[in-house]
From TrEMBL:
UniProt-listed Gene3D superfamilies: P-loop containing nucleotide triphosphate hydrolases (3.40.50.300)
Protein name: Protein ImuA
Keyword field: Plasmid
InterPro entries assigned to the protein according to its UniProt record, in alphabetical order: ImuA (IPR017026), P-loop_NTPase (IPR027417)
Source taxon at top rank: Bacteria
Organism of origin: Roseomonas mucosa
């Protein structure tokens, strides 16, 4: 085969990816002119730091679990405030609804999906994100983080459906550049005044905004997240490897 003839060979088209991109584009066109949905409120201090005044809807967000319990609690809080039907997709063991309810997540609005194989989990997650009736969805990842192609499909699905997508990654996951709107690192923190749970939230990246770090505590009696202390952006960057922006 000559070089000239080889140059004319076209690469196969990923029709599924093309269709996903078209669906997302149509959804954006249909929403054109309508006010953008308000972000999901976390707490005043953090919301003021985030572009749009809260965690963006119609977007994919990554949560790195340095402490699985702390990260699950943070994700439950986000899904609860998405206000609607939410899916929690994971391999066994399943999430425990009464434990998630402590962070405001109503078991009546929670749908648990067991996906033993990574491919099944990604499929269920993408379909959930694309559905306008779903306010939010979470996928528990036990191995490697989804690659760029898969992550891009998930972001497009979230844009099409309008809900919030959370990728819950293990603390050992190797992460690279990603189309996700944000990346968080969550670990347990020393209890303040004997109150539990307390978390250290580090915003590693957020499209259109700076990183940050906050020590917070969850007040179940008040159903509120309170900042105990915050750190300069430089401190957050020093503790964690910087992530390339998209």
């Amino acid at each position: 085969m000559t070089d000239a003839s080889a140059a004319t060979i076209e690469q196969p088209i990923d029709r599924a990816a093309v269709l996903a991109a078209l669906r997302a584009r149509v959804a954006r066109m249909e929403r054109n002119g309508a006010p953008e949905a308000a972000g999901i409120a976390l707490c005043g201090t953090i919301d003021a730091h985030l572009p749009g005044g809260g965690l963006a809807r119609a977007a994919l967000h990554e949560v790195i679990a340095a402490d699985p319990g702390a990260a699950a609690g943070f994700c439950a809080l986000v899904l609860a405030r998405a206000a609607g039907t939410v899916l929690w997709i994971s391999p066994s063991p399943d999430a425990w609804p009464p434990g998630l309810a402590a962070f405001g997540l109503d078991p009546a609005s929670l749908v648990l999906v067991r996906a033993e194989r990574p491919r099944e989990g990604l499929w269920a997650f993408e379909e959930a994100l694309r559905c306008p009736a779903v306010a939010g969805a979470l996928l528990v990842v036990q191995g490697a983080a989804p690659d760029m192609v898969a992550s891009r499909r998930l972001q497009l699905a979230a844009e099409a459906g309008g809900g919030v997508g959370l990728l819950l990654l293990p603390g050992t996951a190797r992460t690279t550049s990603s189309p996700a709107r944000s990346r968080w690192h969550v670990e347990a923190a020393t209890p303040v005044q004997g109150m539990r749970p307390c978390w250290q939230l580090t915003l590693l990246r957020y499209a259109g905004g700076p990183g940050g770090a906050w020590s917070v505590r969850w007040r179940q009696d008040r159903a509120s997240l309170e900042v105990v202390s915050d750190s300069p952006v430089s401190s957050a960057a020093d503790r964690h490897q910087p992530v390339a922006s998209r």
